[in-house]
Design brief:
By secondary structure, this protein is mostly beta strands. 3% of the residues lie in helices and 45% in strands.
Length: 751
């Protein structure tokens, strides 16, 4: 060692690993000392100097973990949310795996938050070498292990519970809802205070807030921000019922009503935010007077809300307690001047004030207070009729008198005053005379209450004949009464009256029975007029008759038409058409006979037919139903009867026919034998009854005439085969050489 306290100033050390960059992987590194110098030491004093090799050991540095993420409701941190740094500015990476686990998920705990587990992640190389580093302690927060959670932005999406228009643009926090998608997991976060504003107070849909003072609540509220995010809120139109106020007006003949400012203010009572009703159309159900019982309707209303009324959903309603007061109507008598005539009547007509458009007053009249001559006489309204569609009840009528009337004294001329006379005559029914009845007599020109009347006289039509407005002349009229001597009058007067036609009837008119002929025509017989006056020349033309229908029946109703009267005096009568006639329609006779039919056993029945042997059906008629035959299918003869064949308008005489069922022949014929004895065609045959039975010949009802009938043949397989009559005839002739017999022309064939 050094002597006497000497010191070495410096020693040169060399090593394969640099102090600042040596990796843990190469450790330990050899350190070789050399070139000791300096200090109080002198290298020449020490020989040899022994240098001893040392070792440089490199330990792992502690990496710094800085974790940061936006709040997501969990304590997990993915690898990409963690920054790993080393010494001297080196960076590292994390291998796949994870996630890392933090001590807390909440933003509020950022000051104490750290990673408590790496979830299997390991360090990997970055700008630094991973093997030179180790994770920091995960047991507590340190400078090398810190975790930060950044608050998330809150999205206000799909607002539910839209508010009803209330006159402002604000939404209280209670009127908003946080979109569920904005809240992570089961976090406890809600709106707790504040409000927002939108661009307008008006009804509509809004997607942005113009102001936001919302506050959050809930155990996880600190992890969210109440600002930002999407907006979807609505202000809905406010439902409002505008009810017409109880209104009143004076009758004006109209249904309309002009709404006053007070009426409009009453209508606006349900509006908000100072909104008003600027116009309203109110109408009465009818125009007539009524107190507290009139129905009015609110037909239209204009709301001034700055949005064309769109902030409201309006229902219009009326009331039934409004009023129309009576209008005042003044009827004023007018002055009038006349010459004394014994009456208090006046020619002047009263005037009107207050009559509403469309109404009228008719029958206006006024009278003097008395009939006497004088000046300054009072004239009073004496009659009027108000035509307002309500019997005048729409008015309170007041009448005003006039006190300037004059009745001048009459100029009296001694002598007799001539009067005009008149009569009225009664209508009458034609009676063959010109006599007329006076029903009333009248005089024109009688002064005051003078006792004078027209009496007596006889009247006659200008002729006896029927007519309207016929001239009637009265003669022999005269005056009667205490004042009759002061008057003269014509002894004749005229009037008009009607002579109407005299009704006449027909007696002894009868309808004749008939046999059914498919028509409704009825024959009428007899008939004479009843009610002809005197020797008037009137005759009766036989009428046409018709049954109610064409069908058979007893005592059927017969109507009469086309009846007429004629003759010189026929114009003075009117004919009453006879009624109550009856007659019968009896069935029409017709004879039918059923056609005989044949068949072999087992064959189907041929169609049953018939022929008309007497009479016939009228055009358009037909028989209904069908013939029937007696039951049975064995070899025999069965009656064919009328069955259901009928027509109620016919009396049917029916001759039955016969259905003959024959056995099936089993005799083979090859060639066809015709076993007909020669004598059957001999001219000497006198009676079909003595002929031998032959199935191939049928008597035609004549002694020497027969019908050759077809005969069935059978082939080897026993199937029946029809043989025509013509072939059979030829075979018959060839087999019997019957052409050489006399009477051969009597044989007939049927086709």
């Amino acid at each position: 060692g050094l002597q006497n306290g000497e010191t070495v100033g410096s020693v040169t050390l060399t090593s394969a690993g640099a102090v600042n960059t040596a990796n843990v992987a190469g450790s330990p590194y050899a350190i070789t000392p050399s070139a000791a110098a300096g200090g109080t030491f002198s290298a020449s004093d020490y020989q040899p100097i022994n240098y001893v090799t040392g070792a440089l050991t490199v330990g792992k540095a502690t990496a710094t973990l800085t974790a940061s993420k936006t709040y997501d409701g969990s304590v997990n941190f993915a690898a990409n949310k963690i920054t790993v740094s080393g010494v001297n500015g080196e960076t590292l990476a994390l291998s796949a795996g994870g996630p890392a686990i933090a001590n807390s998920k909440d933003v509020a705990n950022n000051g104490a938050n750290y990673l408590t587990g790496m979830g299997g992640m390991t360090l990997s190389d970055g700008t630094g070498t991973a093997s030179n580093y180790q994770f920091p302690s995960l047991a507590a927060r340190s400078a090398n292990n810190q975790a930060t959670v950044v608050a998330a932005g809150l999205n206000l999406l799909d607002y539910t519970g839209a508010k009803t228009f209330d006159g402002n643009a604000n939404f209280a926090y209670t009127q908003l809802a946080i979109a569920p998608a904005s809240i992570l997991g089961t976090d406890d976060v809600s709106l707790a205070s504040g409000a927002v504003s939108v661009a307008s107070k008006n009804a509509g849909h809004y997607v942005a807030f113009t102001a936001n003072t919302l506050g959050l609540g809930g155990s996880d509220a600190g992890n969210y921000s109440a600002v930002g995010g999407a907006v979807s809120v609505d202000i809905n139109a406010k439902p409002v019922t505008l009810t017409a106020p109880v209104v009143s007006k004076t009758y004006d003949g109209l249904l309309t009503y002009t709404a006053s400012p007070a009426d409009r203010a009453a209508l606006a009572a349900g509006l908000v935010g100072g909104d008003t009703v600027s116009a309203a159309t109110i109408a009465y159900a009818n125009k007539n007077f009524g107190a507290g019982n009139k129905v009015v309707t609110l037909d239209a209303a204009t709301i001034s809300d700055g949005n064309g009324g769109a902030n409201y959903s309006v229902t219009l309603a009326g009331n039934a307690t409004s009023t129309i007061n009576k209008a005042g109507l003044t009827i004023t008598a007018q002055t009038n001047t006349k010459t004394y005539d014994g009456t208090n009547t006046a020619a002047a007509l009263p005037t009107l004030a207050g009559l509403q458009p469309g109404d009228t007053v008719t029958g206006k009249a006024e009278t003097y207070d008395n009939a006497n001559a004088g000046t300054g006489k009072t004239l009073t309204v004496s009659a009027y009729t108000v035509n307002d569609g309500n019997g005048g009840a729409n008015y309170t009528v007041s009448t005003v008198t006039d006190t300037t009337g004059i009745i001048n004294a009459a100029v009296v001329v001694p002598g007799v005053t001539a009067l005009a006379s008149g009569i009225s005559a009664a209508n009458k029914v034609y009676d063959g005379t010109t006599a007329a009845s006076i029903t009333s007599r009248s005089l024109t020109g009688v002064v005051g209450n003078d006792d004078v009347s027209l009496v007596g006289g006889t009247a006659n039509f200008d002729n006896k004949n029927v007519g309207i407005g016929k001239l009637v002349t009265a003669t022999g009229l005269s005056l009667s009464g205490a004042a009759a001597g002061n008057y003269t009058a014509s002894s004749t007067a005229t009037a008009t009256a009607d002579i109407s036609a005299k009704a006449v009837t027909v007696s002894n008119l009868a309808a004749a029975d008939k046999v059914y002929d498919a028509t409704t025509a009825a024959t009428l017989t007899g008939g004479s007029l009843v009610g002809i006056v005197g020797n008037d020349a009137v005759s009766f033309a036989v009428s046409n008759g018709a049954f109610a229908d064409k069908n058979v029946g007893k005592s059927k109703s017969v109507s009469v038409s086309g009846s007429a009267i004629s003759g010189f005096d026929a114009g003075n009568y009117i004919l009453s058409v006879p009624t109550g006639l009856t007659a019968s329609i009896t069935p029409r006779g017709i004879s039918l006979a059923a056609d005989d039919k044949t068949k072999v056993v087992g064959a189907a029945d041929p169609k049953l037919t018939y022929k008309v042997t007497n009479g016939g059906l009228l055009a358009g008629d037909a028989l209904n139903g069908a013939l029937t035959r007696a039951a049975g299918e064995t070899v025999s003869a069965y009656a064919i009867t009328q069955g259901g064949l009928i027509n109620a308008n016919y009396a049917i005489s029916f001759k039955d026919g016969m259905m003959t069922i024959s056995p099936i022949s089993t005799v083979p014929v090859v060639p066809i034998p015709v076993p007909v004895p020669v004598p059957v065609v001999a001219a000497s045959v006198s009676s079909p009854a003595i002929l031998p039975v032959n199935p191939f010949l049928e008597s035609k009802g004549k002694e020497d005439s027969f019908l050759l009938k077809p005969y069935p043949s059978y082939r080897a397989d026993m199937r029946e085969e029809a043989i025509s009559e013509q072939t059979l005839k030829k075979t018959f002739y060839e087999a019997r050489d019957i052409s050489k017999l006399p009477m051969q022309d009597s044989l007939e064939t049927e086709h």
